[in-house]
Amino acid sequence: MNPDATTDAVVNGQPLAVTSFAEWRDAARALLQAGVPPEAVSWGRPGGEDLFSGAPAPAGPDHNAGNPLQTTHSARPPAPRLPRSLMEMLQTAACYRDPDRWAFLYRVVWRWTQGEHDVQSPADPDGARLHGMVKAVRREEHDMHAYIRFRERPVEAGAPRFVAWFEPRHDVLPQVAEHFVARMGKTSWMIATPEASVLWDGASLHHTGPLMSSAADLDDAGEALWLTYYRSIFNPARVNAQLMQSHIPSRFWKNLPEGAIVPSMVSQAELGARKIGQVQTVGRRSGATIPITPEAAQPDREQPSKIDECRRCELWQFATQGVGGEGPKRAPIMVVGEQPGDQEDLAGKPFVGPAGKLLDRVFAQAEVDRQSVYLTNAVKHFKWEPRGKRRLHKTPVQREIEACHYWLEKELAAVKPKVIVAMGATALKSVLRRATVTLKDTLGKPIRHDGAWVVTIYHPSYVLRVPDEAAKQEAFSLMVKGLKLAQELIERPDVPEPE
């Protein structure tokens, strides 16, 4: 753009015709060199007028016929330099569809050159608007990447193999085209929008005007196969229409192939398919619907035979190995802890770390031979969170306890202990299958459960964590008393059950 023509247009009150960021940048550079403030500039488009078109040139000594804008180009000062971060924001914001965008961007640049560098900050009103425009444009780029659907066209000489239609809210087609160039190789394609189109012939991009009017101009022989697959993976028992609408805005659905069948599938789910969750032939069977628990509704699946093969919850992904129980096959006492610790996870054996050493002291004080006891945990994989270079214990949640109860049940069935010693709340909840049971209400009180006695004591790790020495000794003493009670229950099985 000719700088003299730019400044002449400002002096004569003519709107500056700008169609691209490059043209605006050249015009803005010339205006800044001439010292023209934003309020003295009228921006427009070829063949049309914007909000400021036709406004008379500002009067006054600075903008009349004797204006210094008419000085020669060589007499102008050098163009100001802007930081790269601001230029990148301006270039992105230029894609935002707003009739006032060129005037606004020039006001931002003008303020920056006047020393108002906070114009780039979100705390500034203009800065907040600039950041909002950038965010909206980038979001539109992301949505266009995600929701464009290419349809394969019949092979024709010179025609693109794949064609897509999209209706963007902002002028992001050039950037999106570069994205697909990098991902579709030498395959030819075209993206059409209501305002413009871009074609890739496998070697170069071609930008043109609009070539289509809607997605109805597209057809795809393979689309029926895709819709068949989509119907097959649709699960009416889990459909959530509100969640689908929040993830994919409604303006995209009309141009997605699956958008034509989703409403009917959602309606079918609401009319009864969700309750059945199976094929329509099952739904047509006579008889009453009997509600059952989620566990009973699960299909029969082959269960893992080894702990290291277990995928019943996600803890296996982060553990070194599964840690099973250890002890005699017919031990009279089974001691159940919470989960393996860091050292147990590495060694593959229960209670070999600091908690295991403290437990050995408890066994010695209670005069119980550790070799006669079956030791295990309610959860078989180590749950942890990173803390620097260390792996710190993290308490399992109820669904993980429930998932691992499968292994505890197998151990209880094989060992058949007369007394189960639950160390801590997690072990107690797993043994009794009750999520609301508390440790303080059961300490020192044996409970009869499934033909065995259940005795509750503190977990060794709790004793290690107690900072007060007196409380530590009391907790240790309660553990000893609990193991002695377990021994008594074996020798005196006629101990009455507490009321």
TrEMBL record:
Any idea where the Uracil-DNA glycosylase-like domain is? Answer: 324-477
Q: Which SMART domains match?
A: UDG, UreE_C
Asked whether the UniProt record includes Hydrolase among its keywords, one would answer: yes
One of this protein's Pfam families, by short name?
DUF4130
Q: Where is this region: Disordered?
A: 38-79
Keyword tags:
4Fe-4S, DNA damage, DNA repair, Hydrolase, Iron, Iron-sulfur, Metal-binding
Q: Record's superkingdom?
A: Bacteria
Signal sequence annotation: none
Instruction: Tell me which InterPro entries the record gives.
Output: DNA_repair_put, DUF4130, UDG_Type-4/5, Ura-DNA_glyco_family4, Uracil-DNA_glycosylase-like, Uracil-DNA_glycosylase-like_sf
Q: Which family does it belong to?
A: Belongs to the uracil-DNA glycosylase (UDG) superfamily. Type 4 (UDGa) family.
Quote the protein name from its UniProt record. Answer: Type-4 uracil-DNA glycosylase
